[in-house]
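Annex B. Sample input.
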Amino acid sequence: MNRFSVIMTVFDNGKDLEENLPAYLTQAYEPGYEVIVVDESSTDHTDDVLKLMKQQYPHLYTTFLPKPDIHLVRKRLALTIGVKAAKNEWIIFSDINAFPEDNAWLQTIADNLGNASGIMLARYRKGELIMHNFERLEEVSNYVIKGERQRADGHRGSRLRKLRGKYDFIVVRADEAHELLKLFEQHVGFARLLGLRLSIFFRNLF
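Annex B, continued. Sample output.
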């Protein structure tokens, strides 16, 4: 069975971690897994929450991104730190506000990864986990560039789930994770954004 490393970044998400992180840490998945949280130098009680949860859950690992001046690709850097710390062959990129709705989430993903799958986009719709497998990174590039593009307000808080569009989780082979992250936080002008939207619309249509 596949083994997974779930990676997310947080910034001043102490309350969200208290409420939602246990859903990641209590998955009924026999092969085992790890959850890696990268703290982007939070100023609230995030660090205290993570320290407490690490005592309860040995498969929780934490690291941090030092606090420099505002960086345009800060989230990409934080996720890269998480990938470097990961030990398993599959990576799941997620967000603390897009959390599993039951303890079979990880098993469901594992059961639906095809033999030829290189990447999966997954999302919840009315309580059901919808999963789409792809063989190559190129097949999902438009979705990811649109969903993870640079924004003036950045990736912060509960708005992320809505801003990402049609997925809550990205599942990718670890050896492709760095290539995937190159698609994150690109500058997308209006004309290119319109082209991405049309491309995604017609792909979904046909």
